[in-house]
Amino acid sequence: MKINPEVFDAIKNNKPVVALESTIISHGMPYPKNVACALEVENVIRENGAIPATIGIINGEPIIGMTNDEIEEFGKRKGIIKCSRRDLPIIISEKEWGATTVSATMILANLAGIEFFVTGGIGGVHRGAQETFDISADLDELGRTNVTVICAGPKAILDLNLTMEYLETKGVPVLAYNSDKLPAFFTRTSDLNVDYNVKNPAEIASIVKNKRDYKLDGGVLVCNPIPEDYSMDPNYINKEIDKAIDEMNKLGIKGKEETPFLLSKIVELTNGKSLEANIKLILNNAALGAKAAIEYCKLRG
Ligand code: PSU
Ligand code: MN
Questions:
Q1: What average pLDDT does the segment 82-103 reach?
Q2: Is beta strand 51-58 parallel, antiparallel or unpaired with respect to 2-3?
């Protein structure tokens, strides 16, 4: 692995580091907004006192802390492979470019010694998974790898209820930031309860610290509601999501292509409104992730 020197120094000296994924750049948003967003997220993390480490794979080498030029290349380049746990050894061995999903980013962050990871939304149990078995590898990763993921909740392209059940089975604590309900990405709430309403970054750090001290292996999922001003009307966005899913089924899109297809279709159907919401919520998550990482460093001492 190649660890950026600034990131390496921070990890060694108990300074706060926040990992970021690269699938969101290559498969989650269109160019050039993807690059602008990725760089802005890094800025927000810095402004809040932590060091960003965007993770991806270049010519088979995992990079922990991409440069701005590398981020630009990830945003532009065609044919970067979406890479989750199962893909990692192949991409590395074949010296490919790989965009790391939540699962692969967790693995690499953990190998590098980074506890906190900020993203927009995680993968989950897809609607109809009773038939298709389509359950994102992100959920099993959360069940086994010691990284805390800050997101805006699972998107309503998924079956949120089944996603929560699966996370419970895997022993993943699901915390909502100043909310009793599960945030659902574009909307601040859903009708599902979370395990715990966490009030501040220090409380997040304390829960993570106790999970680590008691060797309760696996991740912690922090769901941070989208800021009020950018939250979308649930009726409107859920209707557009249903249309996107219909179209996906008509086209017979399956497996790892599903999520990227739905993400770009929803941007198209909402004339870019969903993309703006997506960007705002990630920036919001970045600020919280940085603050939690700082509190964790203080606790760890
Ligand atoms: N959900 C989003 N935005 C994203 C993703 C999910 O709202 O960019 C990406 C993440 O990289 C996540 C991956 O890990 O999609 C999940 O893909 P799948 O459903 O194929 O497991
Ligand atoms: Mn899947």
A1: 98
A2: unpaired
pLDDT attached to residue 129: 97
| Residue 273 is among the residues annotated as catalytic for this protein | no
Q: Please count the helices (runs of H) and the strands (runs of E) in the chain.
A: 13, 11
The Å distance, Cα 135 to ligand 1 centre, comes to 11
pLDDT tops 90 at residue 301:
no
Q: Which of 85, 102, 160, 253 to mutate to test the pocket of ligand 1 (most atoms within 8 A of CB)?
A: 102
Residue 262 Cα to ligand 2 middle (Å): 12
**258-269 and 273-300 are packed helices; what angle lies between their axes, rounded to 10 degrees?**
120
The answer to whether the CB of 98 is under 6 A from ligand 1 is no
Kindly state the tokens that stand for 4.
Answer: 């950026």
Under 8 Å CB-to-CB from 203, ≥6 apart: which residues?
Answer: none
Active site residue 254: no
Q: Which residues on adjacent β-strands are paired with residue 150?
A: 118, 222
**Mutation choice for ligand 1 from 80, 134, 259, 274, CB with most ligand atoms inside 8 A:** 259
pLDDT, tens digit, 9 for 90 and up, residues 63-78: 999 999 999 999 999 9
pLDDT the model gives residue 57: 98
Peptide bond into 16 cis (omega under 30): no
123 lines ligand 1 (CB under 6 A): yes
Instruction: Give CA–CA dist 111/199, Å, rounded.
Output: 29
Integer CA distances (angstroms), 124 to 107, 224, 259, in order: 17, 16, 10
List the one residue out of 163, 134, 162, 169 whose CA is nearest residue 151: 163
176-191 average pLDDT score: 97
